Amino acid sequence: MKSMKSKALSLLAVAALLLLVPFVAVAQDEEGMTAEQFVQSLHFRTGQIDVPEAKAHFNLESGEFRYLDKADARRVLEDMWGNPPDDSVLGLIVPRSPTLTADDSWAVVVTYSDDGYVSDADAHKIDYDELLGDMQSSIRDSNPEREKAGYGTLDLIGWAVPPRYDASSKKLHWARELAFNDTPAHVLNYDIRVLGRQGYLSLNAVSSMSEVGMVREGMGRLLPLTEFNEGARYADHNPSTDKVAAYGVATLIGGGLAAKAGLFAKIGLLLAKFWKLLLIGLLFLGGGIGKLFSGKRNKNNAH
Predict the structure, then answer these.
(1) 8 Å CB contact between 266 and 289
(2) How many angstroms separate the Cα of 200 from the Cα of each of 20, 31, 137, 272?
(3) Reduced to 3 states, what is the DSSP secondary structure of residue 143?
(4) pTM greater than the 0.70 cutoff
(5) Tens digit of pLDDT for each residue in 144-190?
(6) H helix count then E strand count, the chain
(7) Which of 2, 15, 25, 244 could form a disulfide with 84 if both were Cys (CB 3.0 to 4.6 A apart)?
(8) Which SS3 state, helix, strand or coil, does residue 42 take?
(9) What is the rounded CA–CA span in Å between residue 266 and residue 22?
(10) How confident is the model at residue 24 (pLDDT cuts 50, 70, 90)?
(11) Residue-wise pLDDT tens digits, 195-235
């Protein structure tokens, strides 16, 4: 696609408990389209958005956010931003402003885990400072392996937004500041988890740390617009019949960066302000595989 061809930068690739292996993804062309024409070809939706795969919905009546269904979401992720294909993507939530072609654009990847009912019994017991320290140590310990494989270093700088769990709404959100190869341009990874009867809905956004204020405000406004349908809500849990996940709230936060198990894959680096990164974070069962995909987009989109 003229003015839109991009190549994903591979820094890390992984399989659980295996050595890292390289991965390179190249975005596909859509012949003859500019970036603006590509965006105009997308089918944005507002209003109540049903996500049947998760038995959930988004209330986007105000028009501040727009929704792209799975097909168009994957077009953006794969064709525009160079992410590798992934069937787990259910949709993409896009702020009306900034637009997808703007340098400071960001979007929210929607996925769903059906691992079962996640008990929140441990939520009030979590020491987030201790959890952060454990995560930082785990990541540092795995850096020699990453460097040996040729992928450089990764560091968890700290909480960009400290974890917060709302026991009444069964919603959890937090953000992490990440650094790759000691570069000054740090990455913001913002996560929302909404707990339901049979699993949890995952909303994930990644941007430059310079955009933390904008993304934090936007994710805060999106949080109350996300709900499970009646019958699929956390309160609808039937302990006699429903599957229960083998982990709790602490794992939802700490598990996403379980570096000792080698659970990093395809994390891109924001080399400069004209590279755009998206990351799809799929949490895993007690140290199982977590997939993190990334891509980048050239500011000028010229190739």
Answers:
(1) no
(2) 28, 38, 27, 34
(3) helix
(4) yes
(5) 887 887 767 888 899 999 999 999 999 999 999 988 888 888 888 89
(6) 5, 14
(7) 25
(8) coil
(9) 8
(10) very low
(11) 999 999 999 888 888 899 999 999 999 999 999 999 999 99
State both tokens at 96.
């009306």
CA 23, 37, 51, 187 torsion: positive or negative?
positive
For residue 157, the surrounding DSSP H or E stretch is strand 154-166
- Edge-to-edge, what's the strand order for the sheet holding 154-166? 65-69, 91-95, 108-113, 200-208, 187-195, 171-180, 154-166
Which residue matches tokens 């405000």?
217
- How does DSSP classify residue 71? H
Report the alpha-carbon distance of residue 92 to residue 111 in Å, rounded. Answer: 9
The string of DSSP letters for 177-212 reads EEEETT-SS-EEEEEEEEEBSSSEEEEEEEEEGGGH
Are the beta carbons of 34 and 4 closer than 8 angstroms? yes
Structure tokens at 106: 């960001």
- The percent of residues above 70 in pLDDT, for the chain, comes to 73
DSSP letter, residue 28: P
Residue length of the chain = 303
The alpha carbon torsion through 267, 106, 86, 300 (nearest 10 deg) reads -80
